[in-house]
């Protein structure tokens, strides 16, 4: 009978290698999913947004779980996903059109050059810059520009994941509590941070951006700026960026009117932009801060820059969330370090029994 060979690894080495294998397999899975990771991240965001409605209808009123889930998925697709995708597609297609025909942009730039007496660009540079913008936006906006098949798969995975998150909610939340390496109070803090960020950067910021985009588009249309609807769409996306935001849209429009000799229209755009569009942002933030989540503008600004580069358009939410989670975990680390000496001191102060040396060796 053959002898059973002993394992060459110690128990600790087996434990470490198990962790290495788990981390390696997780990295391979994430690498394999690649660009489809945004589908699962988007499902998580929609889950946080729609969960209060789900809880009210299913847990409080006892409605059928599958029917409620189907209704919420339909609502998310028709009201949230499709309009946002349509705006993204409109933005990418219009910039692609401008990159192919730069005559309008060059006419404006030549007017500015004549007014200032300084030549600062050529048509080749403008075309190259616009083509780079199209490439950058195509990679980061979830639109049909990246391919119909890819778009369909991402949306399908997002809705499919969201369906199981709702229909198997108890198992999903139980798995999070079981496998995430955090204490109960830390989990509670992270959950509050997630809810606060999603509310502030999805619900709150989307509402503020929509109002600012409508005001910007109407202002440009009233003062006869070409393609006012398109620039209103651009203002919607720009409004997610704190401080800069919509001035990146109506500011150049005012300069254009001033360089064209339409002083009244240019001054009018500036007045409406500064007095109304910018102040409506501050007013809505004050009104909505206590209702849907209050995030510091610095966290939002740095998070947007970080998140868009990593996650694409979803980085508008995930970037600030990453920074918020980092701050929460730093607070947890500080609290644990502050409490640990007290725990050690309280244990070492206890008298040890004659046969008990565990307290002394702690």
TrEMBL record:
Compartments reported by the entry: Membrane
Major localization class: membrane
Membrane-spanning ranges: 39-58, 70-92, 144-166, 202-223, 229-255, 267-288, 300-330
Keywords: Membrane, Transmembrane, Transmembrane helix
Membrane disposition: Multi-pass membrane protein
Protein name: Predicted PurR-regulated permease PerM
Family per record: Belongs to the autoinducer-2 exporter (AI-2E) (TC 2.A.86) family.
Superkingdom per UniProt: Bacteria
Taxonomic source organism: Hymenobacter gelipurpurascens
GO cellular component annotations of the record: membrane
A Pfam match: AI-2E_transport
Signal peptide limits: none
